[in-house]
Every structure is written in structure tokens, then in C-alpha cells.
């Protein structure tokens, strides 16, 4: 494994921050009320976007959460695995003892027995206990002294055929954040105590000028309403990089990785935001990377990039969605609920963060979605629709378009074999 020291003065300050204000702020007593659902590390997403819906669900899944914080992603995956009786184990590593205490308490509140915790730094490769089918590193790389070196260490910890779920900050959707960070660095230097710095930040926010760009940016509800930890993480973090999609893809390449999916895929297709036919024709001539770069700069509201990644050249190709034996599954929202959101003109208003875009769907979508239950095959759904006067040939034409659109929105996926 690659080894490196990977620490500096700002890294020491970062460690102090997360010990004082573990992020995100969570109360284990609330575990009985809700399960936070998100990406990456949703079990159905891992099955589909990492393993191409080809890895049997009976195979044990060994997962690492590299920098688990207070445990949102790890608790979600552990709960999903327990509920679906999936074999495997989840190992959480974080250097903040305070954060791990919260994550442990959350796991205990849910009676999760498939999850364990290790206190240690990702800059010390010996911290990682073995190799893994799946690694989550969400909201971590952009705070590290040497993100590329750490990513290489994680790549070396992947088992053959494995993959990762990553999240890094993006610059344009964080407009206003770095300006305010700069101001606060002068008003309350990193050398001051975290409690002092937080007090100064609160005072600034109470009287923030109306012209401050952060006031115009609606992407930060979770940070601005997330208590002391949220505010500190947003405005006082001693090291906070942001990656354009191009810079993020370059980082992956240097680590020997490539994306199997940018989440959600449609978000990175500018034709969705450019209804003008002439503009769409130009988009179609672009490479996949160029499209992603245009989408980011055009929309301006991507505050993060979430991706599933695999070793370069090892991306798994999912089965044909029109295979009669394929089993479609809703990623989270039941099909009948999603069908209710479709407008009379057969468009689905879809929120990409703060941007709502009408996504066109086949007119038969409302009737097909409620039939997707994670058990019926595509062939069985076709037979039901045939009884409703939709010929088999027409069904597969409609289904191909429907699946393609909703897969790109990460709403309909294919189930892995038993």
C-alpha cells in the first residue's frame, strides 16, 4: 500500500473541528422516527451502478465507510441490508471519537449487528482492515491534505470487481461560500478555538449584508439549518476544496478509477436543460465529458458531485432492460406514488437540487409504473399490459424509452439475481 504522512497544521485544525462539532449533527434518540435516505451507498444503487445488477444478492457484501462521520450513509446501508436479510458487514472508520460515539449510538438504537467501528485516520493505510467489495468516501476527499494519495489507498483496498461511492464539493453551486470563508478567516483565524470561531460566524450571519452571494444561493438548507455543526462545516472548515466535474474526472483517472455513474446521470446531460432544437443538435456532437462540463456550468447549482466509481476498464454492463426475464425495481419511491407526480401532458417535474425540469415520458408510463414491484419480470409486466390492449411490440418500444428516462433519473433500476 502507498504510505504518506498526509498531515499539516490545517489538518490538525480540521481534526479539532470534527471532535468539537461532529458533522452532520445527529441525535441518536431520533433514530426511531426516521431513516435518512440518500446517495451514495443506497443498497439498490450499489447493486445496479457498481455491480451492474449481476452480483448475486446472496453473496456477502463487505463495505467500508472511509470517514463515516456521524453515520448517515453507514446507518442507511446497514439498515437496508438488515431489512432485506443481506449477508455482509459494514466497517466504519473515522478519526473523530465524538463522531463515532454518535454513530455507534445510532446503530445501537436500531439494533444493528452488521456494523462495527474503528477510530483511525485515512492518511494511515494500516487503519484499513483488509479489502472491500464497496467503499464509501462521502464528503471526505475535499478536506484532506492529499486527496489523490488517499484515493489511491482506497483503490488498493478494493476487492476485484468492487467499487466506491464518492461525494466531493463542486464550486459553482457553492457560490458565496468561499467568499464568506475568506472573510471569516480574517475575522476569526484558524488558530482560535472552535467555539470562538463559531460565535463569530453566528454574529456575521445575523447581519450578513443583503448583497452577499450566499444570500442568493438556495443550495444550503441542510448546512444553514443544521445547527452548530452545519454552520461550522460550511463556513469555518480549515480546508475545503471544490472540484469542477472535469477536475473530479481527472482526479479519478489519476487514481486508476472511472465513473460507472454520475448521480443522477440526467443531471449531466445539458440537452435536458436546452429545449431549443439547434442547441440540442450541438450538444449531440459533444463527448460525454463535454456534456457534463456544459451541464455543470449551465445550471450553476451543482454544489456536489456524487459518483459511483470502479477501476478503470472494469465497469459492469447491466442486463438489457428489455430482457423478458429482467426484474425492474423502484429505487425508493413506489411506482404508484411516482405515477401520481406525472402531469396530464406526460411530463414528470423533476428536481435537480433547486432546478425543476419537465422530463417527457411515454403516455403509458402511469399505467406501467404501479406494476413494478421488484418481483414481476419485464415479460410479466408486458403480459399484463397486453391484456390492457397494449401490444407486446408496442410495450417494448414504450418500456425501452420509459426505462432509459427513469434510469437516468435514478428512479427505476434492475434487480440483481438471487
From TrEMBL:
Any one GO molecular-function label of the UniProt entry: methyltransferase activity
UniProt keyword Methyltransferase, yes or no: yes
BP term (GO), one: methylation
Domain called Methyltransferase: residue spans: 66-164
Key words, A-Z: Methyltransferase, Transferase
Top-rank lineage group of the source organism: Bacteria
Pfam families to which the protein is assigned, alphabetical: Methyltransf_31
Organism this protein belongs to: Acetobacter aceti
PANTHER family xref list: TRANS-ACONITATE 2-METHYLTRANSFERASE, TRANS-ACONITATE 2-METHYLTRANSFERASE-RELATED
InterPro entries per UniProt: Methyltranfer_dom (IPR025714), SAM-dependent_MTases_sf (IPR029063)
Keyword Transferase on entry: yes
Protein name in the entry: Methyltransferase
